Amino acid sequence: MRSLTWKMKLMLLAVAAVPAFTGYPLMFLNDPVIAGITRGWLGYSLGVHGILAMVLGPAVWGICLSIAVLIMLPVVFGGAAISYLLYLSGLGTTGPAGYSAHYLGLCITMLTVIPLANGLISVIPVHRIERTLLTRETGVSFIEKAALMFIRVFTHIVFFVIPNVLEIVREERQQRESLPLRHQAAGAIRMLVYLGVEGICASVRYIPLWAEEIAALPDRRSKIKAS
Questions:
Q1: Type and span of the H or E element at 33
Q2: Per-residue confidence at 227, pLDDT binned at 50, 70, 90?
Q3: DSSP alpha helix (H) spans, the chain
Q4: Residue 224: is its pLDDT beyond 50?
């Protein structure tokens, strides 16, 4: 896939995203493999990840999948845990048999759509666009400054914050393996809280510096008036 341009890769991933947003032809493959996961979504998910691995390469595909897992875990398992607690307390009307299929479907949907969305963004040559905007002699418009800030934040999260978070997860998992099960559960909860705080802080750490740098770029309108 190295011979493909970034526009061709973007188009290929955009076509691959059509079933996720339209439901076609997944609606015709509704036979459940297990409760909550149909043959259509299972095959589509496997196909999407195969395309992502070929188009993006194993390293970038792994990052996109890791981002999806980090987003999916608190949503799916947290939601299922809350539903179960509501059921035990008597406030919920349905037990695990009633909501398990929903959360399994949500799990495979998130593990398919989120990596695909990240892949669509990652094929765009953000560094080249950033360099072009920073060195443009005619100045930068307000919309281009906003796009430049988005590029800075996005690349920082994908290529710095997420890998650091994954490294922390790996180290914490190795340390918890020798602990009793109840201590492992408590440690996992503490780690999720820490990762949430660390991820937010690391993501916004350089925003004031970038905002000052981007705001100092010459405005295109002022450049036109000066000429």
A1: strand 32-34
A2: very low
A3: 6-16, 18-22, 39-56, 58-89, 96-122, 126-134, 142-156, 162-176, 181-204, 207-215, 220-226
A4: no
